[in-house]
Amino acid sequence: MLNVSLRQLEVFVQIALHGSVRAAAESLHLTQPAASMALAEMERQLDAPVFDRERGRLRLNARGRELLPLAQELLERHAEFGRRASGKLESLAGDLRIGASNTVGNYRVGELLGDFVRSHPQVAIRLRVANTGDIAAAVLDHSLDVGCVEGPVTHPLIEMRPWRDDKLVVCARPDHPLAKQRHLQPEHFAGARWVLREPGSATRTTSERALAQLPPGETVMELDQIEAIKQAVTAGLGIACLPEVAVTDALATGRLAALKTPFLDLQRKLSILLHREKYRGAALEAFLLSVS
């Protein structure tokens, strides 16, 4: 009969999240030998490893990937049992791992987290900012509890919930020829030099959808940060589709100009991502309620 302890489950989950025994030990305030022993004992009881060892890193193998969400659920249910048994139903604690795509994480984080943090100050928020593809992958492998992204994600295990409407604007330096053109038409964009986000970004996907409605141009640069793209456009290196919320200040101060392009579809929906099979504990349910 298996006798896997809560401590062993905690070590297993933290190694899965951090990729090393040392980092897991630090997060749990254990010595590294103690964490190593806990993992070794759990694997002995399972009679199988749950990680592949690769150049000093530990990566979940197929068995580990199968067991990780179950271990997370057991730990969350144990915490929930303690909260209910103590009668502290209004006091949530623990960690919540949230992923946000760049637009959300850099420009809408107050909207996303504000109400929840004010209502539940004892819950530690671990926020990861990356592109939409990376956030979706992290929700799928259970390294994130929930995500908020800019683009559509199609996967049978992902549930998407609409959150906010969002739009992009085509930006140029104020002295760019397109910024001086009155009554812009699609043909005016022939040969335009574009600065784009990297593949996997939802902003890139929306930009490519817009570019498909225009005459051929040239991609002169790919950057993985919106602020870097703003700097490139300000320097006159090209034009770009950027989130409206990200360029408000630059437009107000005259560093950038927004081109009027009613012929382009630059609308999109920001969405909450959830793993359909993930256990939704009290903290996650409270967060979902706060963003509903």
TrEMBL record:
Keyword Transcription on entry: yes
Q: Which UniProt keywords apply?
A: DNA-binding, Transcription, Transcription regulation
Q: Supply the InterPro entries for this chain.
A: LysR_HTH_N, LysR_subst-bd, WH-like_DNA-bd_sf, WH_DNA-bd_sf
Q: Where is the HTH lysR-type domain?
A: 4-61
Per UniProt, what is one Pfam family of this protein?
A: HTH_1
Q: Which PANTHER family match?
A: HTH-TYPE TRANSCRIPTIONAL REGULATOR, LYSR FAMILY TRANSCRIPTIONAL REGULATOR
Q: Which family does it belong to?
A: Belongs to the LysR transcriptional regulatory family.
Name of this chain's protein? LysR family transcriptional regulator
Species in which this protein is naturally found: Dyella acidiphila
